[in-house]
Amino acid sequence: MYRLISQLYPICRSITGDGLRQTLRILQTHIPLEMREVPTGTQVFDWTVPKEWNIRDAYVKNSKGERVIDFGESNLHVVNYSIPVQRRISLSELKEHLFAIPERPDWIPYRTSYYKETWGFCLSQRQLEALAEDEYEINIDSTLKDGHLTYGEYFLPGETPNEVLISCHACHPSLCNDNLSGIALGVWLAKHLRGLPRHCSYRFLFIPGTIGAITWLALNEEKLPRIKHGLVLSGVGDAGKLHYKKSRQGSEEIDRTAAHVLKHSGNPYELLEFSPYGYDERQYCSPGINLAVGRLSRTPHGTFPEYHTSADNLEFVYPDKLGESFAVCLKILFVLENNGAFVNVSPKCEPQLGKRGLYRMIGGQSDAGVNEMAMLWVLNLSDGSHSLLDIAERSGIRFESIHKAANALQEHHLLREKFEFVPTAAG
Ligand code: ZN
Fold first, then answer.
1. Under a CB-based contact definition with an 8 Å cutoff, are residues 39 and 45 in contact?
2. pTM metric for this prediction
3. Which residues of 20-41 are buried (b: 16+ CB within 10 A; e: fewer)?
4. CA 331 – CA 89 distance, rounded (Å)
5. Ligand 1 mean position to 327 CA, how many Å?
6. What is the pLDDT of residue 360?
7. How far is the CA of 420 from the centre of ligand 1 (A)?
8. Dihedral (C-alpha) 335, 338, 342, 345: value to the nearest 10 degrees?
């Protein structure tokens, strides 16, 4: 995942254009995702697919011909979606188009102007302070014209049509935690799930933030009833603890699953209530869409100083943190895959476990082998109205142990699957 982030880092992405396409083509070397192109001007709910933006070069030169701001050094130097400009201006006029962060004098901010046609440069406060009175040559070699909005979609069918949506934004230029970490995690989950038997079907979206989610939702409304759970992945590589942001409903299976997995992860974590802000959960959880989609992040966006600056770089994300985020996602998906309801076929008093070899099957550790308490809980609550996740929550025993106990009891004909399972509230 870290290597993929390193490979994608130099590319100048935006909500449309060749940087986004190049990114998706690199992802295609890992998973056979489909690239979709939606023409400029397409109406998507209350929005319109914008003009396509591409950039080749940009600079500010002083009168000596030196590039004092150079897109070639960092693509953050240009306000993303800047219109083409070529002219000579004074320092004071130039300053109206410059953005820096006085409190972080070495960092370049990340700025965009998608829906207002303007131009600008971003630079460090030190660079800004070093600009002398002079005549400057401005050149932004960009194009903003009718074209397409591009996104990547990878559908991985399972035994059932019930879908898990995994969505990440792919529209930021050289920013690692904010966009590249989520992309890398999404790709690795897809690669991993491809090789496993699956109950659920999976739909991976690599889309430009906001407009990409709106576009996909507007063009795929007929698919929405099949999406049973979803996760927005973003900011999953920094050193902070994991945060799960609940869906709009707040008590969906994905919400309870993420809470359960994080509680048993052994690492610090935090649960966040839903709010109509953030990443594309805003669109998935808008009232007319209302999908059971939560968000997994480490340190939430906007709450760390490196956010949307050049300091969100390759040193800000860590392979082991990406690995931990990956492991937690796999555990969440394991619960979603295996959360069934069962019926105890011998419910009058406890069945005699000893004569079936189930009693004292415990290994050395409390969670190794089949956990005896887990078997007792599964037998007690398997009345058809409790799912395995209900039992895991009520017993305080991790889902894997409950699942393993249910399998052992099923093998010994003490439990049968209840097929028409209607999820119930917790407890
Ligand atoms: Zn961002």
1. no
2. 0.95
3. bbebbeebeeebebebbebebe
4. 57
5. 24
6. 64
7. 42
8. -120
